[in-house]
Amino acid sequence: MAEKQGFTSMAGPRATGAAPEIGIGMLGYAFMGKAHSNAFKKIPYMMYPPAAVPKLVAICGRDGEAAAAAARRYGYEGYYTDWRRMLEDSRIQLFDNGGPNDAHAEPCIEAAKAGKHVFCEKPLARNAEEAKRMLDAAVKAGVKHQAAFNYRFVPAVRQAYELVRSGRLGRLYHFRAFYLQEWIMPHYNTPMIWRTDKKRCGSGALGDLGSHILDLGRFLMGEVKAVSGMTKTFISERPLPDGKGMAKVDVDDAFVAVLEFANGGIGTLEASRFAAGHKNHGSFEINGEKGSIRFNLEKLNELEVFWVGEEPKETQGFHEVIVTEAHHPFIANWWPHGHLIGWEHTFVHEFHHLLDCIVNKKEVAPYAATFEDGYRNNVICDAIAESAATKRQIEVKF
Q: Is residue 172 located within the same domain as residue 72?
């Protein structure tokens, strides 16, 4: 370090023992591209000291002009319009797939074959068969693999996980969850998009929203044994984006499902894109022998808990815990207690976890979802869809 007129420069070569750099190659520059890039840029100075420093090497998209604009905006060194070319870039060690569902399987499989660690947005694939091929490729290549179920990295959700794992709730009886949005209701005049085309997305609300709450069910309650489901499409046709004609909507707008867990508990799931007034409302509740836990994504810094037999009886009831103390999961990296964090911070937590696993050769599970979890999630979603089509209960087989 050079000192001049009271100023000490920190410039120069990286210090001995500094965190290693991990080169990032990202597919997709829209919603998830923005969220992921934001997380990568925060890691070095907020998750301090970082397990690794993400180096934003390249971003990829089919529209060259848009990809170039994203690279400039987010600070990537360059961009590609062909993901195959990007995977040839030796500077990239981690492939981050934030593309549409139909762009999950092949790029992730090829990335694993190229020796890249792989992160992929949820749902892992359009169906279980695709997900299994992705899992097999990652396992065969020996690379780290993580599926983007970021709600595992909400501090309140991790706190709930630790309470369950500690046995504080005793035997688990019920898991109920719902995820509600409204963004394709008639008043939005949403045309036909990739999320309403089964060939591109695999399923509708089931895979898009349901996969999130299903993952939380597996994370907190354990494996699913059997399912019964019902799906519904409220608008069967939508105008094409260019306004020239109509296209058939062949995915669900909403679903409900009943689950039987291997531990003997039962559960219900509900997700809809037609829930007026709900922009991004997710919630779950667990009822156990010794207590209950409630969580609401729109109040993600809070966890409600109830303990059976708590004294004094006059004040017995659900307690609202603000999960912002330094001893709560992840919070020590952020602000003084009482200062809230948000949805975007879940991505910081999950990517830092993956980088730590890569650098320090740790297991991605159980805290994060692996491709194994993503595959099992797809199997269960497929079973719910089969149940809805056949109107019978389906035993889940992996």
A: no
